């Protein structure tokens, strides 16, 4: 085991996969000479050269489409969005060109591209730089959507994503980049896409979350969502709280609640509690921003509510 | 060209019979561009285009039987019946679709060009698009990226003067010479007569030669005319019935026929034989499509993921 920051783990994942497979390359704004807007790609230009670590102009629709085309041409592109807020410019290519093409072509045209970058809230960057896109992307069939928390999961899932023949949306979080965790030193450390991790066992309540410090179930992948892990836990605890930083309406929690209602209705001793971000565009003022995002107190309150303890 | 013409006419008939549904965009009148351009390519060069794609697919060598089966939504179609008219693909022949979002194929085309440059493959990517795509942001993004990165791509604008029902005079700032936009991105561009198959072939051959030398992208604007509506749903209220005549449009197939007869390249009898063979091929395609089954219900869930 080694101590790595999430940033280093992501960089190592990309470097290892680029060493192993000449068809893997990275493309995005400031990824090469600037060493990455958030320094995730530090050192990659030096090791792999400008042919494989490619700086793009500010042209998200263009370079997302190019990533899809390069994947269709047999390469394994990693397309970095400086944040997923800017990926909205490229939404047509993410969904219509990447997610749907294998199906529309009857299996003829796979699109093995990874779209990665920071998602969700940062700090005081206001409404247009703070949105969580987990629910939007998880809504669409045809690709994988993953959202790791720890550095080990970030590394293992990014390696898995790069190797996956499907398009993958890889949701990182800027606030986590500098946090350190123990990571297996083994270069073949892979985390399977679609499997949640039970971070802490318990008996009174299940808390299911992603991209944040989940005490109980860290979902890690949103599509496919590890419903079995959630249901197995609910059968044991009979109560569930979901946690996400995105908006509540049609969010990930809504999907999990529906899943549990459909498959484990009789197991529930209380309605599912959902903890989410406030249903507003992200405000700038420090106090408002803090209140707009879920915190430990919100989760604790929700847990108490579903346990009928106030 | 004749195969494409008769194929498209057959599609029109099948649509009226309800055997092809949804959107159907016929290539009638534009055959010289697909045939002239694609015949100037090597077999493994990439071709990608928009939703008016039957002509491109057939010119690239797709079997008309499986194309027709796809249009009829049958399991024997090129996409197993799951794509339809706008999503024909023939990966073996490097025909990469068939894309329904206007302009959406453009950065994808640049990505194909990037992949062949990356792999040092000496392939050219030919990207077809219409006058309707030139005002999309990604048209500009793609031209810029292709130029900055010197990608081996040929941009071929099929300008039939109408973006669906809207004439280019109403939509494009800068007037009738759309190819001039390319010079803003340092890409050499020309405008040619897209109804002249030999002229198209010559121009594309020249452009492809330059691209293969590593000189970067080229842009060709081929002026053409679409005889039918934008799609089967379009009654063409936005133009006069006799506009083609008014504009002096020459049918590309008749033009080539007359040329061949005049210069003794082929006689009436030989041309009649070709026509008969084409009719046979198209009838065979229609029969194959009609006789083929619809996809199995479990095909609903196949190929969502690789």
From TrEMBL, chain A:
Signal sequence interval, chain numbering: none
Catalysed conversion reaction: N(6)-[(R)-lipoyl]-L-lysyl-[protein] + pyruvate + H(+) = N(6)-[(R)-S(8)-acetyldihydrolipoyl]-L-lysyl-[protein] + CO2
GO biological process annotation, one example: pyruvate decarboxylation to acetyl-CoA
Enzyme class: oxidoreductase
Classification via CDD domains: TPP_PYR_E1-PDHc-beta_like (cd07036)
Pfam families to which the protein is assigned, alphabetical: Transket_pyr, Transketolase_C
Record-annotated Transketolase-like pyrimidine-binding domain positions: 4-179
Cofactor needs: thiamine diphosphate
Matches recorded under NCBIfam families: PRK09212.1, PRK11892.1
Role of this protein: The pyruvate dehydrogenase complex catalyzes the overall conversion of pyruvate to acetyl-CoA and CO2.
UniProt-recorded name of the protein: Pyruvate dehydrogenase E1 component subunit beta
From TrEMBL, chain B:
Catalysed reactions, semicolon-separated: N(6)-[(R)-lipoyl]-L-lysyl-[protein] + pyruvate + H(+) = N(6)-[(R)-S(8)-acetyldihydrolipoyl]-L-lysyl-[protein] + CO2
Keywords recorded for this protein, A-Z: Oxidoreductase, Pyruvate, Thiamine pyrophosphate, Transit peptide
Keyword Nuclease: no
Any one of the GO BP annotations: pyruvate decarboxylation to acetyl-CoA
Gene Ontology terms, MF aspect: pyruvate dehydrogenase (acetyl-transferring) activity
CC cofactor: thiamine diphosphate
Span of domain Dehydrogenase E1 component: 1-296
EC assignment: 1.2.4.1
InterPro entries: DH_E1, PDH_E1_Alpha_Subunit, Pyrv_DH_E1_asu_subgrp-y, THDP-binding
Pfam families: E1_dh
Database matches in CDD domains: TPP_E1_PDC_ADC_BCADC
Top-level division of the source organism's lineage: Eukaryota
Top enzyme category: oxidoreductase
Function: The pyruvate dehydrogenase complex catalyzes the overall conversion of pyruvate to acetyl-CoA and CO(2).
Protein name: Pyruvate dehydrogenase E1 component subunit alpha
The organism of origin for this protein: Geodia barretti
């Amino acid at each position: 085991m080694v101590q790595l920051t999430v940033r280093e783990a992501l960089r190592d994942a990309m470097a290892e996969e680029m060493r192993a497979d000449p068809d893997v390359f990275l493309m995005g704004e400031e990824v090469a000479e600037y060493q990455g807007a958030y320094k995730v790609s530090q050192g990659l230009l030096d090791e792999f050269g400008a042919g494989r670590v490619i700086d793009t102009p500010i042209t998200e629709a263009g370079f997302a489409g190019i990533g899809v085309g390069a994947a269709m041409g047999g390469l394994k592109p990693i397309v970095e969005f400086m944040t997923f807020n800017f990926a909205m410019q490229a939404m047509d290519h993410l969904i219509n060109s990447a997610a749907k093409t294998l199906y529309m072509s009857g299996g003829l045209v796979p699109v093995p591209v990874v779209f990665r970058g920071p998602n969700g809230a940062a700090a005081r960057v206001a409404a247009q730089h703070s949105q969580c896109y987990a629910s939007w992307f998880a809504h669409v069939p045809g690709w994988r959507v993953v959202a790791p928390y720890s550095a080990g999961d970030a590394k293992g899932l990014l390696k898995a994503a790069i190797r996956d023949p499907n398009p993958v949306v890889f949701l990182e979080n800027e606030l986590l980049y500098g946090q350190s965790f123990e990571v297996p030193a083994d270069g073949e450390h892979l985390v399977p896409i679609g499997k949640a991790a039970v971070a802490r066992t318990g008996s009174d309540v299940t808390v299911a979350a992603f991209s944040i410090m989940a005490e109980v179930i860290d979902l890690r992948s949103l599509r496919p969502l590890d419903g079995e892990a959630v249901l197995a836990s609910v059968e044991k605890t009979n109560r569930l709280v979901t946690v996400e930083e995105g908006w509540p309406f049609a969010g990930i929690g809504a999907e999990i609640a529906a899943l549990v209602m459909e498959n484990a209705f009789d197991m529930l001793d209380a309605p599912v509690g959902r903890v989410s971000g406030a249903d507003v565009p992200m405000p700038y003022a420090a106090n408002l921003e803090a209140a707009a995002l879920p915190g430990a107190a919100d989760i604790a309150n929700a847990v108490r509510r579903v346990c009928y303890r106030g | 060209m004749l195969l494409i013409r008769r194929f498209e006419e057959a599609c029109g008939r099948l649509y009226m019979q309800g055997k092809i549904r949804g959107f159907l965009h016929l290539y009638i009148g534009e055959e010289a561009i697909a045939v002239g351009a694609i015949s100037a390519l090597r077999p493994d060069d990439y071709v990608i285009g928009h939703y008016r794609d039957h002509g491109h697919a057939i010119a690239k060598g797709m079997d008309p039987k499986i194309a027709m089966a796809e249009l009829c939504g049958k399991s024997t179609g090129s996409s197993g019946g799951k794509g339809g008219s706008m999503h024909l693909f023939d990966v073996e022949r490097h025909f990469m679709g068939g894309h329904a979002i206007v302009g959406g194929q453009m950065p994808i085309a640049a990505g194909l060009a990037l992949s062949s440059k990356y792999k040092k493959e000496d392939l050219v990517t030919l990207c077809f698009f219409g006058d309707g795509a030139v005002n999309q942001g990604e048209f500009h993004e793609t031209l810029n990226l292709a130029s900055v990165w010197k990608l081996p791509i040929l941009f071929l604008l099929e300008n039939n003067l109408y973006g669906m029902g809207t004439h280019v005079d109403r939509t494009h700032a800068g007037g009738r010479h759309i190819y001039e936009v390319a010079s803003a991105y340092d890409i050499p561009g020309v405008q040619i007569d897209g109804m002249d198959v030999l002229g198209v072939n010559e121009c594309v051959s020249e452009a492809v030669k330059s691209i293969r030398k590593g000189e970067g992208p080229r842009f060709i604007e081929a002026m053409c005319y679409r005889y039918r509506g934008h799609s089967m749903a379009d009654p063409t209220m936005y133009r006069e019935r006799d506009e083609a005549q008014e504009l002096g449009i020459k049918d590309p197939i008749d033009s080539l026929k007359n040329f061949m007869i005049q210069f003794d390249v082929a006689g009436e009898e030989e041309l009649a034989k070709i026509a008969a063979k084409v009719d046979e091929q198209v009838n065979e395609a229609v029969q194959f499509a009609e006789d083929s089954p619809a996809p199995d219900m479990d095909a609903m869930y196949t190929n969502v993921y690789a």
